[in-house]
Specification:
The protein is an alpha+beta fold and 102 residues long. 41% of the residues lie in helices and 35% in strands. It has a single domain, classed as Alpha-Beta Plaits. The chain starts with a strand and ends with a helix.
Length: 102
């Protein structure tokens, strides 16, 4: 599996983002190769840990219209995208549901 950490800052309040982010979350459920996403927030920094079946699926997501719309939104800035290999065997030992399924 492959993990991607995406973070960005937002000028919008979390209350204003709840509806659009809920819609985005529902749309993500149909993204091919996405195993899971954990949403994160620290003050004005938002984002998520994304787990994909493989790096190709991650790259397809990052090239998608969904991500293009997100990065083009003027309410969001300072995007950072980091890629990680998932250590499946160790993750399974510590109970990661994604690794157990792999």
């Amino acid at each position: 599996m492959h993990a991607v950490l995406i973070t960005f800052t937002s000028s919008a309040s979390l209350a204003k983002l709840k509806g659009p982010f809920t819609d985005y979350a529902h749309a993500l459920r149909g993204m091919s190769g996405l195993v899971a996403k954990t949403w994160i927030r620290d003050g004005s920094t938002l984002g998520g840990f994304h787990i994909f079946a493989n790096q190709a699926a991650a790259e397809n997501y990052l090239k998608s219209e969904m991500v293009a719309g997100l990065t083009a939104n003027p309410a969001f800035s300072d995007f950072q995208i980091r890629h990680f290999d998932v250590l499946d065997e160790l993750s399974a030992i510590t109970g990661s549901p994604q690794a157990v399924r792999a």
